[in-house]
Design goal:
D-Maltodextrin-Binding Protein, domain 2; about 350 residues; 13 helices; 3 domains
C-alpha cells in the first residue's frame, strides 16, 4: 500500500527529536552541524508538510507543543528504521573494500543483521562490512569457499563441518490472510491437517523449509507445496493477498500480525522451533572485527574462539544461546510455547 503524501523529511524529524532532547533549536542545530536559521527553516517545512504546529515560539524560546511531543514519539521507530536501512545498504555496497565479510540467510539478513551492524558501527566507526544473502544452504557453501568470515543460518540441528554457536531461537508460526477459512478457527492445526493443505513454501535449501519438513517427517508426513517462492517477503505478500497458508518465522511476521494483514494460528504436536546460529570455518581464526560483532550480539564464547577445534570437540553443551538473552531481546525471538499463536 503506497505511503500517503506528503511524506515528512526524516532529517527534519531527526532535528525535531534533537530539539526535544537538547531543549533548543540552537543546540539542536549545533548537534546536526547546521546553522540555527537553516534548522528553523527545516522545522517550519516539517510543520507545513505535517500541517500541525510542532513548536511554540511565542515566548522567544521554541518549546514542543503537545503535537510536537506526539510526533517525536511516533518518529522514534521511523528514525530507527532509517538507521537500520542505512547500515544494511552500506554493508551491501561494501563488497571489495571490506574488513568483515558476512553471509546470512534471508530472514537473518532482513530482520537481525542491520540492527547488529548499527551497533557495531557505533562502537567501531571505521568498520567496513559486506553482506551476502542467500538461503541457509548457500550461506554454508559461502563459508566453505572461504568467501565469508562468518555466516548466520537457520535450522534445527547444528550444521556439520563448521564451528557454530546459537544466537537465538525463532518459532515458526502458521499464518493465513484474514479472509482465509482458518482465520476464525479456535482449535490448533495438527500435523495431518497441515500436510493436506497446499502451502506457500520457501525454496529447497531454506532453513525455514527444512524445519517444517523435519517437523512433519516426525509424523511420516511431508508438506504439500502450492507455490514455492524465494523470499519471506514474497511469501507474506502472497498469503496476505489470499494465496493460501504459510509457515514462517515469528521474527518475520510480527508486524503483519500486529496490523492485521496476517492471522497467526496455533499448531499442535509439531516441533517448529529453529535455531539461528553463527557459523565459521573451524580451521580459520575469527578476525578481530568478527569477534567484536559476536560480542555485540551476545555470543561471548564464540567471540573468544580460535581455529583448530575439530568437529569431534564440538558438542551440543558448548552450542548454547547467550545467557543474556531475554524474552523481548531485539536481537532474537525468545518465543512462547510452540502451540500458542502469536499475540
Amino acid at each position: 500500500m503506497p505511503i500517503p503524501l506528503p511524506v515528512p523529511d526524516v532529517v527534519s524529524l531527526d532535528l525535531l527529536r534533537s530539539v526535544a532532547e537538547l531543549g533548543s533549536i540552537r543546540q539542536a542545530a549545533a548537534a546536526h552541524g547546521v546553522s540555527q536559521p537553516a534548522a528553523s527553516m527545516r522545522l517550519r517545512s516539517l510543520e507545513a508538510a505535517l500541517r500541525v504546529e510542532l513548536l511554540d515560539r511565542s515566548s522567544g524560546r521554541a518549546r514542543l507543543t503537545a503535537a510536537g511531543v506526539a510526533v517525536v514519539g511516533w518518529s522514534e521507530s521511523v528514525l530507527d528504521a532509517v538507521r537500520t536501512l542505512v547500515a544494511g545498504t552500506e554493508a551491501l555496497r561494501a563488497e571489495g573494500r571490506t574488513q568483515l565479510r558476512i553471509a546470512a540467510s534471508m530472514t537473518v539478513a532482513e530482520y537481525l543483521v542491520p540492527s547488529w551492524l548499527s551497533a557495531l558501527r557505533a562502537a567501531e566507526p571505521g568498520a567496513v562490512v559486506s553482506l551476502r544473502m542467500g538461503n541457509s544452504e548457500q550461506v554454508l557453501e559461502t563459508i566453505a569457499r572461504k568467501d565469508a568470515d562468518v555466516g548466520f543460518v537457520e535450522g534445527r540441528a547444528a550444521p556439520p563441518a563448521v564451528e557454530s554457536r546459537v544466537v537465538c531461537d525463532d518459532d515458526l508460526v502458521l499464518v493465513v490472510a484474514p479472509g482465509h477459512p482458518w482465520a476464525r478457527r479456535r482449535g490448533p492445526v495438527g500435523p495431518e491437517e497441515l500436510a493436506r493443505v497446499p502451502l506457500v513454501l520457501r525454496e529447497r535449501g531454506s532453513g525455514t523449509r527444512e524445519v517444517l519438513e523435519s517437523a512433519l517427517a516426525e509424523h511420516g508426513l511431508a508438506p504439500s507445496a502450492g507455490v514455492e517462492l524465494a523470499s519471506t517477503t514474497a511469501i507474506k505478500s502472497a498469503v496476505a493477498d489470499g494465496g493460501g497458508a504459510a509457515v514462517l518465522g515469528r521474527l518475520a511476521i510480527r508486524a503483519e500480525v500486529a496490523d492485521g494483514r496476517l492471522v497467526a494460528l496455533a499448531t499442535r504436536d509439531l516441533s517448529l522451533t529453529r535455531m539461528i546460529r553463527v557459523v565459521w570455518d573451524p580451521r580459520r581464526a575469527l578476525a578481530l572485527l568478527a569477534r567484536r560483532l559476536l560480542v555485540h550480539i551476545g555470543v561471548d564464547d564464540a567471540a573468544r574462539a580460535r581455529a583448530g577445534r575439530t568437529a569431534g570437540r564440538r558438542s551440543e553443551d558448548r552450542e548454547r544461546a547467550p545467557s543474556t538473552g531475554a524474552a523481548e531481546d531485539p536481537r532474537g525471538a525468545r518465543s512462547s510455547a510452540r502451540s500458542r499463536a502469536l499475540r
